Amino acid sequence: MAENKSTIPPQYDINAKWDACLDLTVRRFVYSSLGGAFGGLLLFRSPVTRWASVAFGAGLGIGSAYTECSQLFGGSPAKLAAPKLAETPAPQEGQD
Q1: CA–CA separation, 63 and 56 (whole Å)
Q2: One Pfam annotation, family name (predicted)?
């Protein structure tokens, strides 16, 4: 009486991807917030700047987790397009 278990290939297992992304996001948020708090305690005297360093660290953690998760789901994060330059010949001086 063997059970026929159908396994889902890893590239199609959305639940595993979401679990990995949530775990990654929480870990990076907490670790970077703690790093920002530690850096704020060492570098700043004002409570406002200390909280700002915590917020900056949290933003770095969430941003890096977003980038990693978007690659995990097969997409890429939004990229800025390079400005397109018009190809015009340079004016040549001295020609009559």
Answers
A1: 10
A2: DUF543
